[in-house]
Amino acid sequence: MSKISRFTNKAVQLAKNAVGGRGEVAAPEGGGGFAEYAVLSLHCLRVYLEKSYRETLDLLSEMPQILGEIGLDATDLPDHSTLVKWFDRIKTALWRVLLRLSAQLHDPSGHAAIDATFFDRETASKHYCRRTNYRVQTLKTTALVDTESHAILDVHCTTEKRHDTQLGWQVARRNAGDLASLAADKGYDWMELREKLREEGVRPLIKHREFRPIDHAHNARIDGPRYRQRSTCETVFSTIKRTLGDAVRARAWFREFREIVLKCVVHNIKRAVTP
């Protein structure tokens, strides 16, 4: 079985689990619409192939075996505009469920790292920027990554200038029940964050910024090997940008967030199906 076939098979399974496995037929019958799992699978393939909507559908029309995994054939493929509309129609909560399920393809270690990076927002025309007040050119993305499997457990996106400590707690709080430790660099140095993590039963591996001798003493007590695994995030970010693109094509913020989540889902599936 080829790599893309293994990827498609796993993506379809996850999509069916995410929507609840209602037993729908992938292709519309008698004027009905496409099944949600089929549309989710097509979007996963779009990101996997790193192609536009038109190019993805054009390539898939020549791949009957891949379409067969979804339950479609070439004549069933929707128009690219239909795929775009479905991307807006599917709720954000469903994309998050898909991300969580893709992370569960890997055995969780309980040890995670958190860090942030920036994805470029694709350049828009000056007229569009003036009309929509489109000024921020990058999308700040904070990811929680399992240090053993390199699976992305959760993700947060923003165009605002919020501090890493605030974003770090927001992401960590959603996943505290699954974590034993959390590693982060000095950008997340905040005593209240450490205290909140301890209250949730999570060991904070966050070094102090060194202003006083006691800060050096605190840093010396940090678990060396576990703390050094915080660079796992940088490795994952580099992999995603190199293989799935370092920019988001969508214009609206909520579409950009969904596109980032989809990149994370594809990353998790690719790692799961790679021997």
Automatic annotation (TrEMBL):
Name of one Pfam family that matches: DDE_Tnp_1
One annotated GO biological process: DNA transposition
InterPro entries: Transposase_11, Transposase_Tn903
Residue ranges of every copy of the Transposase IS4-like domain listed in the record: 110-269
GO function terms (MF aspect): DNA binding; transposase activity
Entry protein name: IS5 family transposase
